[in-house]
């Protein structure tokens, strides 16, 4: 990490000349500007501006209609980008570069924009604090590495992706030695950027990797997550390779997840999820928190699985869950209790894909957990065994269409986030569905063109 004074010293020493001023958008991408360090130090550190369509676009940067926050009728004006100087850090994998994350504020009132993902999470974290808890989380991140560069894939299409390994590389140290030109630079780069990397490993598919960052307060964890994604893409690009965080890039292969490990701690640093005398060491607080997440699992699914593609990951026998149930150290369950009986006792939500926006995912999970605490909700019985085969177990919504309906109708999320936020992200989900519905795919042509 870096203070403004340290940035100035690094600029004077000609070590840093560029500052990336970035805000996470609805998709969890880093959007912003590249500042000359002199201008950032002169005035940019106070604030800059961006077009407010950044929180109303899709992947393609379309001006999507149907948002209350902005539109052609409202003139697509500006938001203030307010650097959060606590996030200022060097970017060791880019030459002479530092990065700062921003909050998005109203141009006139300087109040936080309600639909900004960072603001949404900050509000839930503050709610937890008011209830006496620090909300901690870690978001594991899986992705695929391909031999081709993004440019080669753009020119040649994505039909013949070449994963970096020829076999399932789960925990393989030999295969991952071959990937060190990327992964070692990534681990060390993140470490140098003040992101507490724990480890990387091969994952359970050819070309699949995972990186783990140490758990921290949820806002920091979400910040770590978006920077880690950006770093992975940038470092891969520099090596002429590509990576993807799609939840399911090929229906014949496993998908990529982003499991969210969560725990609450008292404000004086005691693990509020631990009660040594109770079953699995799970305190009443943990049981209520999990009860809230189970009760509201369907309503928060669109925040954990935001695209049509996300739902193709939920399939039987591939380590992705299909049921929103809880179980001790059971990888078939949507909610897996880990670290039982220790101060690391926590719940791992396994529903989210690597395509999730970590601010929205953490905010949704936390809001559901806090609703469990507020309602002193009772935790249902543990599901034991193979939840894939359990016909009684609560299903995870199978489509974005269903998840969007549940999001829209969520009284819990409307109370926690506000109607404006729920309506905004329901619109985002529906737009993804509309876009998907109108596109004719290769699959349809292959199936129907000759024989249909
Ligand atoms: P797994 O069995 O899922 O591989 P790991 O031991 O790799 O579990 O831990 C997964 C993540 O859980 C790590 O990022 C770690 O920092 C995080 N973690 C550990 N303890 C806690 C906790 N008390 N609360 C939240 N996350 C935690």
Describe the fold and architecture.
- Strands 1, 2, 3, 4, 5 and 6 form a six-stranded mixed sheet that branches.
- The protein has helices at residues 4-12, 37-44, 117-130, 150-156, 173-178, 180-192, 218-238, 284-295, 297-304, 358-374, 400-408, 411-417, 419-438, 442-448, and strands at residues 18-24, 30-36, 48-51, 78-83, 89-90, 97-106, 133-139, 141-146, 197-202, 208-213, 216-217, 242-244, 260-266, 323-328, 333-338, 346-349.
- β5 and β6 (97-106) form a beta hairpin.
- With 452 residues, the protein is α+β, with helices and mostly antiparallel strands.
- The chain starts with a helix and ends with a helix.
- The protein binds adenosine-5'-diphosphate.
- Adenosine-5'-diphosphate (ADP) binds at residues 136-138, 140, 198, 212-215, 261-263, 338-339, 344, 346, 348.
Supply the key terms.
452 residues, alpha+beta, Creatine Kinase, Chain A, domain 2, 2 domains, six-stranded mixed beta sheet, binds adenosine-5'-diphosphate, Gln_synt_N, nucleotide-binding, glutamine synthetase activity, ATP-binding
Briefly say what this structure is.
With 452 residues, the chain is an alpha+beta fold.
**Given the structure, what is the number of helices?**
14
The total count of strands amounts to: 16
CA-based shape: globular
Q: Biggest β-sheet: count, sense, barrel?
A: 6 strands, mixed
Return the string of H and E elements.
Answer: HEEHEEEEHEEHHHEEEHEEHHEEEHHHHH
Strand content: 15-25%
CATH superfamily of the largest domain: Glutamine synthetase/guanido kinase, catalytic domain
What's the helical proportion of residues? 25-40%
Structural class estimated from helices and strands: alpha+beta
Could you tell me the CATH topology label of the largest domain: Creatine Kinase, Chain A, domain 2
List bound small molecules. Answer: adenosine-5'-diphosphate
Top-tier CATH class of the largest domain: Alpha Beta
State the distance separating the first and last CA atoms: 60 Å
Uncertain regions spanning at least 5 consecutive residues: none
